[in-house]
Amino acid sequence: MNRYALTFRVRPGSESAVAEILSDYSAPPAGRPEAARPLLDRTSVFMAGPVVVRVVDITCPPAEAIRHLAGQPQIRAVEEQLRPHLVEDRDLSDDASRRRFLATSVMRVVASRNGHSGHLPRTAALYQALPRQGGEVARLLAAEGAAPGCGTTVFRRRDLVVHLVESSGVPPAVPQAGLLAPHVRLARPMTLVTDRVVGAMA
Which of 23, 35, 159, 162 is the most buried (most CB within 10 A)? Predict the structure, then answer.
């Protein structure tokens, strides 16, 4: 199983409309009906202000998953509704646009620790690092580790860092806020917009 995060921004003032669009659509097919393992396992969408982050657990490269999703009527309808709200336009039905979207949106996994099985509730926090401090913010979060029975993943794209926690308990809304304060200009919890287990894999 591979975990990826993709991030994009929406126009100021459109956050509520975008959250409604992303929370209210039918789940697409998991893909690979002839295979033992589906393409898609789980997808979670978080928002913090105009920043959208989609975390996906998949069994294929991101380009293959995006290509599969772009062919699904549910996703095409969502994309058409989203386009007026996007800071950077995209057309997932177009090969060049898909490649450009992936090149500008995929966040690097800095650390991922899974101390549990199954699908636990997810929370996330967003950190907007000071210039040239993104690496240090990600490093400090990655060094925190995961509590027994929990999972954590740290994603980074330039100065944007996201800390994902999977836990049946109640983790801190913004982990390591005090430690990271000298390195960030913004640290805030993200709102979970949707969380779906698509492929029903344990």
Answer: 162
Distance (Å, whole) CA 112 – CA 5? 12
Average pLDDT over residues 99-116: 90
Fold designation for 2-106: Alpha-Beta Plaits (3.30.70)
DSSP reduced 3-state for 167: coil
The domain limits of the chain are 2-106, 108-191
* Segment 56-94, tens digit of pLDDT: 999 888 888 888 888 888 889 999 999 999 999 999 989
**Cα 69 to Cα 73, 76, 108, 145, 170, distances in angstroms:** 9, 8, 21, 33, 32
Q: What is the DSSP string of 130-158?
A: PTT-HHHHHHHHHHH---TT-EEEEEEET
Output the pTM of the full model: 0.91
Q: Alpha-carbon distance 75 to 45, whole Å?
A: 14
Confidence (pLDDT) at 78? 93
Cα 125 to Cα 187: distance, rounded to the nearest angstrom? 7
Q: 35 pLDDT exceeds 60?
A: no
Structure tokens at 51: 């920043």
CB 123 within 8 A of CB 167: yes
